[in-house]
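Model it.
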Amino acid sequence: MMNFISKKFFGVMVALVIFAVPAFADTTVVVDAVSKYVWRGTAVGNGIAVQPSVYCTLNTGSGLLAEGRTTIGLWGNYSVANGTNDEINITLTQSVGPAAITVTDYYFPLAAAGGEGNSFFEFADDGGHAVEVGASVDVANASLFLGRFVSGTTKEDTYAELNYTLSDDFSLVLGVGDGALAAEGDFALVNAGVAVTGDSGYGASFTVNPDAETAFFVVSKSW
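Modeled.
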């Protein structure tokens, strides 16, 4: 049965699509290709993945709050090797100054055991959806994010991440998490790394997960 938070989230999304589309000031479409999909210090599947995304931002003064920006995002992950870890994320972000609140619905079409499909309209905690509520704030060259899952199989899992930009090309990240991200389920450092942005949309990142005692080197290309 669809839980209350998920129902409200999609109600807001539908209302924005119907009534606010003419107010969109900026729409961005990006396609990324990565050698491996690594999320918060954990590998999701194996091999190359294609990750398309679309973000639409409302005109200033036309968002949910007059003094902030409202952005609707759609992001996907599709493995070239197989579709077991396919993922579609829908986000709703409200920013005011340096702070932002984001609600993200993570949908995994083939999350059920045995590769069986999950109905997009089924929001039970054991289904293919997981909803996270997060808050972020930017201060100088640093950005701090705190998120907590409120539904899905990862319900009550929490993740906090600090990003620090060294230059236009280099950034550092530190992330701690519990639940499914941590080996013992308790809070641990699960994501420590550096990302490099090169010319013509090329990039690379080196990530160490001290809790899992593993590391990942990922290269990417954006269009």
